[in-house]
Amino acid sequence: MEKEEETVVELNKNEKQNAPKTPVVEKKLKILCLHGYAQNLKIFQKRTAVLKKALKSVAELYYVAGPHVSSMNPADHQKLVIDENTPEDEKPLGWWNFSDDDKKYFGLEESLELLLKIMKEEGPFDGVFGFSQGSSMAAILCSHLELENEKGNQEVPPTPKFVMFFSGFRPDDDAYNKYFNSERKLKIKSLHVYGEEDKWLNPERSKKLATFYENPTILTHSGGHFIPMEAEKRHYYVDYIKQFLDTN
What we know:
single chain, alpha/beta, two-stranded antiparallel ribbon
């Protein structure tokens, strides 16, 4: 088996960062965006607003809300208290809930069905963008699509061109091992961004996720569990996405 190529990006902080030039675009890219556990659309849209603005001429960000109300605080595993007075747009949502030991997931299959339905009805989607649990959901979704399309399944949407993981990780539930095989690398282009000082998610888990992809691109930052959005990183994301444009 050939050793996969891994691109590790190092950004020169001393180098002047210029905003990427905008190519002539025939059609904007469409990117599916998946928030993290105990977040919601309101939070995720706010935290990615500067990236959405930077991409306005080249891509549309299509945000989807997780279908499950989060039941547990991921920091201390204490039960989250949601009452009837909590506004709908402020409820903490997720792609699944989990057992106390994080080894069993509840509701993930429903989330996968929802995303496949959205991709059929609202697609085609060129890329998928996920943060934390949303990254893990993106990994399952894209692997499912790639495997099913390779089988010739005409019922599933096409596999996106790329996927972007921020603080991503492989699921712990063994039921989803079928989507991650170190002997068969996933071909979808992938960008893996994670913080070297992440206290919520061991950076080794993000690093491990990258090993399941052919030629992954890895970009680390010195921070923790968040999507870095300073100009230097933001320009890099925009340039990464632009390579998938059809231009004239």
